[in-house]
Structure formats: structure tokens, C-alpha cells
Amino acid sequence: MTIKNSKHENVMLNDNIEQNLQILMNNNKRTGQKSSQQSILMRTSEYSQMNRKYFRPLSVFRRRTSLLFLSLMLLMAQIPLGASDEHEHIYEDNEEVVLWMNTVGPYHNRQETYGYFSLPFCRGPKKGISHYHETLSEAIQGVELEFSGLDIRFKVNMEKTPFCKITMTKKNYHTFEFAIKNYYSYQMYIDDLPIMGSVGYLDETDSTAVYFFTHKKFDIGYNGDQIVDVNMTSEGKVRLEIGQEIEFSYEVNWKSSSVHFEDRFDKYLDPNFFQHRIHWFSIFNSFMMVIFLVGLVTMILMRTLRKDYARYNRDEELDDMDRDLGDEYGWKQVHGDVFRPPAMPMLFSLMIGCGYHIAFVTLLVIIFAIMGDLYTSRGSILSVAIFVYAAASPVNGYFGGSLYAQFGGKHWIKQMFWSAFAIPLIVCGTAFFINFIAIYYHASRAIPFTTMLAVASICIFIILPLTLVGTVLGRNISGQSNNPCRINAVPRPIPEKKWFMEPLVIVILGGILPFGSIFIEMYFIFTSFWAYKIYYVYGFMLLVFLILAAVTSCVTIVCTYFLLNSEDYRWQWTSFMAGASTSIYVYLYSFYYFFFKTKMYGLFQTVFYFGYMALFSIALGIMCGTFGYMGTKSFARKIYSTVKID
Description:
By secondary structure, the chain is of the alpha+beta class. It contains 19 helices and 10 strands. Strands 1, 2, 3, 5 and 6 form a 5-stranded antiparallel β-sheet that branches. Strands 4, 7, 8, 9 and 10 form a 5-stranded mixed β-sheet that branches. β7 and β8 form a beta hairpin. α12 runs antiparallel to α13 (449-478), α12 runs antiparallel to α19 (603-642) and α18 runs antiparallel to α19. The chain starts with 10 loop residues before the first helix and ends with a helix. One of its GO terms (cellular component) is membrane. It is a multi-pass membrane protein. It comes from Dermatophagoides farinae (American house dust mite).
């Protein structure tokens, strides 16, 4: 598949993407042509052996440990059993092996996909399986598996066999011409192993010549009674011409392989990209930032607080006549207002509850991804995320409900409803808008109505009741306010202060360091989602998650100290928004990534990209804001419980 690169594009990223696509396409060569891309394919087996030897990510023990959770996940995902044993991955000789056709779409727009047979391809003659019934997560992700109609038998070689013909009408010609000129590629599955191929290619010497591939050659490796490797080579190039009759054919070659079943996905991974020294350096750099910030907070704040304590204690020993009222300044002066409920307490409490919820779900999903090879199954990460989010709803209710009770809120049922549905409404609202565009484009990303009903049912019958349980527990266990200081009846006026002490300035500056600790990891995450990479280094992600929590807490503690020292007691929203501002920088970075690191184009892909990047940034902002509030609340309670208050 020839892809022309602009001289102004990022060469490093494009090379990585094209290399990974060619690994997935598995020797998709052109007859009679020898290109540099084919040399990459020649090294695939050596690359896989090195990958298994040095970068095998998980042990068999952890794979078995994850089976218990995955079995529970399957109950909710409602994964059906299809023909053959592609879910158990065990075959008998001469047993049918199903070739599923998934989607087709432009190479540069990974999310702009359409059903394989939306192009005028023809099916094989074999009948009996009409459509693959996808799971909830696969339906959301646009997986649209349809039976190819090709007869493939386990360990049975097949010579070149024609299976259908089409006539290249004018409409078909223009359809295929458009697909080839936009570098359309398609995806297939055999035994859950992905295969990619190109529809055709353009002749670099003749811009009017469009060539079409008509022959699929499958080389399938087996180890015992399991399939461990699948390669597909596109051959039989034919120049497109109106009125011609095109015959499609395929052949199958089986060969014994020494690859173990648990290692069969290693060939799709790219350790040279994800475990590059830059990645390691960014983790080390972020870790050193954490040590520096923790040391800074400990040294400066403790030293400063020690002086504050000494000054306040000295003032307490003086008589009222001897005390210099001019020395009455600092964070102690707002002790009667510092624990006053913030503005809009219901909104604040539900944001904190959602932040705890998102953080808990993120941590669990990362841990489950480390324990098991979730990247080897279609939609498994999303299935786990949906399952954990629904099951962890009591976390949202507990922390949000208890905080609202501490603020003295009376409308706890309303708060509980908003806490349960806030994130689902934001996600579903954005997805619903994007869905309209997907329907207009007839894209496979269009979410079916039945899937929408399934998501709504999960929200109503699982998330809402569990959030109610958490809210009741939170109000009864932690709902009592136990602030170390009494709250004055009349709010203290906030004095004027320097411009850099204003909450807005603190919020804008508060997200810079947390963003600096994660922006390298954002590049790898974006590339794995928006380009052709499989993210599997979840150990790195766990470290970055912990580093982000620590950096955000330290930064907001420092910001809050200066805010309180300027006698401004509006620290709750300030600490939350200072942490949440990290998401603003992440969203701005997504613009840079879109324009300088990708070649995405078109309305659908653009709306899809910025819509879901907005969702990601909102979730990240709520989580980081909660990190900031958690650290700041502990800090405020600590300093005001230590100083003597009249």
C-alpha cells in the first residue's frame, strides 16, 4: 500500500504508523514490486522473536489471575458463541475457521470506518452465518463483523480458488477509484487475530492508473490445535476499467509454527516505539519532579508554618494593649470562614464525587490491564471500563453524598441523581451529537438504537441504585461536619491583594506542572488511539497516574497556602479548578497533535476527534481537580487544627 508523505509532515510519527500498519497487514505485497515497506515485512518474524524474548509483558500467572474478572465481565458484555471455536481458540482438523470482514476506511482517518461490503465487494458462496452479534463495547466502537462467505478449514490447504465475480459498472468504478485514491484499507479477523489489507494502489508514474487487488493469499500458522499466526498477501493486481469483469480469488496455506498461543499477539506490539529511551526519560523526569515538589512543599511550607506558629503563639501571650494590631495578618485570620461551604455546594459535591469515581475506575482498569492481556480482545478495555464504572458507583455516592451532608445540604436526593447521571449525560450527549454525523456518513461508528437502550438501562438499573446506596452510607458514616474551627455567622470581607494572588491567576498557573508531568505520556496514548499502535505498557500508565496525583496535590497545596495567607478563604473551588486546569492544557495539546502529528481530514473525523478529546479532557479535569481538593483539604485541616484559636 503506497502512501505519499508530505514533506511538511512529521516523518518520525508517519514512519511508526506505516511500519505498524504493515505489521498488521502481514505481508500485503504487490506482485512484481519490491519496496522498502516489503523489507519491513521480511523482518516481521525476527521482530516477533525479539519481542517475545525481551518484551513479553505479562506472565502466565497474571493471565490466569485475570480470568475471574474477565468471566464476570463477559456476563455483562453478553458475548455469544459463534460457529467454530473461535472464542475457545481450539480447533479440530478440518473444522471450519471463520473469516470475518470488519470495516473499511481511509488510512489517515482511523475512526472513519464503514462496513466492508459498503464497497461493492462480493461475498463468497458459503452460507450459514449472516452477521456477527457484537458485544456492547464492540457496538460502541463500530465493530461490524460480517461473514466473508469463504470456506477455510483448519489445517486444510487450498489452491487458488475463485469465489465470485463483479462487473465494473461506472458506479462501481468511481466507488473503487475514490477508495483507492484515499488509501482505503480494510480489516478482517481470523480467530480474533486482526488482518489488514489495502483495496488497491495508485501508480506513481501514471496518475490516471488505478490498480485493484483481486486475490487474497492467507498463510496461517498453527501450534497444535490452535491458530497462532495469520498473514495475508494481496495479489492479482488489475487496472480498473469501466465495463470489465473482475474475478476474486483466495488461497490458504497452513504451516506449523513454534509460536506459543499466549505470545501470538506479540507481533502486533511495537516495543521500539513504546519503550523508547524518550519514554523512559519522561517517566524518570516526572518522578524527579515529584520528589522535588514534595521536598519543596515540606521544606518551604513547614519552615514558613513554623514561623507562623511562633508568631501566633507570641501574640497569644501578649495582652490586648500590648498586641500590635498591625501584625494581625495571615491565614489564621480567616479561621472563622475557611471551612465555610463553597458557592454552589451541590455542584461542588457532585464534582468531587465524580472525581473520586473516575480516579477509582481509572486505577482499577489500569490494574486489570496489567494483570491480563486486555489488548488482545476486541473492545475488552471498554468492556472492563463500563463494568468497573457501573460497579464502582457507590464510590461516587459515598464521597459526593457525605461532602454534601457536611456542607449542610438538604436536597440530597437531587444531589444523588445528578451525581449518578452527570458523567453519563455528558458522554451520551457528545456521543449522540457525533452519532448524527456518523449516520449521515453511513459510518460503522453510528451507534445502534438498541445499544443506546442498553447504556440507558445500565445507568438506570445499575448506576443509579448503587449511587443511592453509596449516598446513604456516606451521609450516615461521614456526613457529620467535624471542622477544627467554628464558622462565623457573618462572612469576613476579602481584602485586596496582588494580582498574582487572585484565584483566577492561581487556577491558570496551577495546571502547568501537572501537565508537564504527563504530556509525553499523552503523546503515546494519543498515538495508540488515533493511529495504528496497540498500547500495552500499562505499567508506565500506572506510574504516570500516581505521579499526576502527587504533583497535582503538591501544586494545589502551595497555591492554597498563598491564597489563605492573603486572607482569601475561597480555597475549595480554587483548589479544584487549579487541579482541573490541567485538562485545558491537554485539550490545547490535542490541537497541536491534530494539526502537526496526524493527517486527519474531513468533517466526520474532525468532529469525532475533538468531540472525544473534549470528553477525555473533561474527565481528566474532574479527576485532577479532585486530586487537588483532596490534598488541599488535608492540608487545611492540619494547619488549623494545630494553631490555637480563641
